[in-house]
Write a structure and sequence with these properties.
heterodimer; A: 70% helix; B: alpha+beta; 5-stranded mixed β-sheet; 12 strands; 27% strand
Chain lengths: 141, 239
């Protein structure tokens, strides 16, 4: 119960605890919410890929720089490329499509809402798995 | 649309199917991780990393035609001042030509990621006048200099695994995995441009290649200091 809530006498407005809000977002099958989730997830990976690009840029700033080793540089540009295509560009596209296409064609939702939700979470897991593999094997040459 | 198509196709045809004038030099370039092998098949020359080609005159063109092959993975031959990038693709010979009108040294590099030392796989092309090129060809066609003063170094070279990878014409060494060392001292750089060809750098390279090019495929042979000195003096005679 927030102490800043405006109280109207005679009306009880219960604020939802954050756990419930989180639960709503995690279990949603609504295409609009999934669209937002896709875009949020793409922006998160945009930041990660952007950091990789910045490190690449620092390494390439002047000749014979040794900010990162050749092996790390290899991983950096590989991950930057993969992340940008599969975890930024494509999810942004799917996010917009999920949000807008049902609205544009006058449908109530996607044809298979739960499959839609499953697809999102599977793709999110894929992104996490890729970065987990980077961290789990740091000495792979 | 059809005009553009015709113009594009005729330009591509003019470049790809350019006829080979009689003065043209043929070079086979083979890309390795992380060095360049250059062979002049009609002249019987095998060298590495530094290419010598004739300067061409529009009235009497002497272009250089290159056959590009790869020993392992993708590379790309790129001398910005002479020609565009042409890839060296395994099992896919590519052909390109260069027609330089000015003599001089032109630097280039590998332009397709091929592994950890892709950045240090540099190219050095010396466009020579006809006389200079003829002199270079003559000296490259000679077998290796046999200097008795460096017999100890030559023994170390032939006794350790050096000859498994390197070749020195006129001796037992005929390995093809690494660069041909017959005329090592005629080159301005070692390790495909990664270091200048000085005795100190050569010594460091032989002692531990990973100090200059970490990830290069030449192993550190764990030679004693005396052995390294002997091998370096032997290498210094290979003019």
């Amino acid at each position: 119960m927030s102490s800043n809530a405006i109280t109207v006498p005679g009306v009880q407005i219960d604020e939802k605890p954050w756990v419930d809000i989180l639960h709503e977002w995690v279990t949603t099958v609504d295409h609009k919410r999934l669209g937002v989730l896709y875009i949020g997830y793409a922006l998160l990976f945009l930041v990660v890929a952007g950091i990789e690009a910045i490190v690449i840029g620092i390494q390439l700033m002047y000749p014979h720089n040794d900010f990162v080793s050749p092996q790390v540089f290899n991983r950096l540009f590989t991950m930057h490329g993969t992340t940008m295509i599969f975890f930024v560009a494509m999810p942004i596209l799917f996010g917009f499509a999920n949000y807008l296409v049902p609205l544009m064609i006058g449908a109530r939702d996607m044809a298979f809402p739960r499959l839609n939700a499953f697809s999102f979470w599977l793709s999110a897991l894929g992104g996490l798995l890729l970065y987990f593999s980077q961290e789990a094997c740091p000495t792979f040459r | 649309m059809l005009t553009y198509l015709y113009l594009s196709l005729s330009l591509i045809h003019a470049i790809q199917d350019a006829p080979q004038p009689p003065n043209a030099i043929e070079v086979t370039a083979i890309g390795h991780q992380y060095w360049w092998e250059f062979r002049y098949p009609k002249l019987g020359i095998v060298t590495a990393n530094e290419l010598h080609i004739p300067v061409s005159d529009p009235a009497h063109p002497a272009p250089t035609f290159l056959n590009l092959l790869s020993a392992d993975t993708d590379h790309s031959f790129w001398i910005p001042e002479l020609a565009g990038k042409t890839d060296l693709i395994p099992n896919h010979p590519n052909r390109m030509w260069m027609d330089p009108h000015h003599a001089g040294i032109f630097l280039g590099q590998c332009a397709q990621y091929c592994g950890v030392q892709h950045a240090k796989m540099l190219l050095r092309v010396s466009v020579d006048s006809r006389e200079d090129l003829a002199a270079w060809i003559r000296s490259q066609q000679q077998p290796a200099v046999q200097d008795v003063n460096v017999a100890a170094g030559r023994r170390v070279f032939e006794g350790t695994a050096c000859i498994n990878c390197h070749a020195v014409a006129g001796t037992n060494a005929n390995g093809r995995f690494g660069p041909d060392l017959t005329h090592l001292m005629s080159r301005a750089t070692i390790a495909s441009g990664a270091a200048p060809n000085t005795p100190e750098k050569l010594r460091l390279w032989i002692q531990d290649p990973n100090k200059i090019k970490p990830g290069s495929l030449m192993p550190a042979m764990q030679l004693s200091d005396a052995d390294v000195d002997a091998v370096v003096s032997y290498m210094e005679t290979l003019r």
